[in-house]
Write a structure and sequence with these properties.
The protein is mainly alpha-helical. The chain has a domain at about 10-85. The chain contains four helices and two strands. The protein has helices spanning about 15-30, 40-60, 70-85, 95-100; strands at about 10, 70. The longest helix has 24 residues, at about 40-60. The model has no long low-confidence stretch (mean pLDDT about 85).
Length: about 110
């Protein structure tokens, strides 16, 4: 139903208002169980997203650390590498693997009927 909610604190450049709002929307979706609320719940859902966004922005702005800010590109590259290791993707990426790139193909000999 929803994407992973990513860490927004201690990055260079800092988290944008759009990133905080997107994380807040995902959080409210997860809590409510609604991807899109019904008309009857739309106002409450929208109000919850606005409230969570405001509180999350304040939290991210008020947190302090002595650690140096993390680089977004480096963190994203590490996440992609972990995903590749976890899901067995090679350098060619998931689309190429879906097409069968890099696999040895036989001319049909030794294939099992299926």
């Amino acid at each position: 139903m929803c994407r992973n909610i990513r860490t927004l604190f201690n990055f260079e450049p800092p988290a944008t208002d759009e990133e905080v709002q997107a994380a807040s929307l995902q959080f409210v979706r997860k809590l409510s169980g609604f991807n899109t609320p019904s008309r009857a719940n739309e106002a409450a859902f929208r109000r919850a997203v606005e409230d969570v966004t405001r509180v999350a922005r304040r939290l991210v702005d008020d947190l302090v650390t002595t650690a140096p800010p993390r680089n977004r590109e480096q963190v994203a590259a590490l996440a992609r590498a972990r995903s590749a290791m976890r899901f067995g993707r090679g350098a060619e990426g998931p689309a190429a693997q879906a097409r069968g790139a890099g696999r040895a193909r036989s001319g049909g000999a030794g294939r099992r009927p299926g």
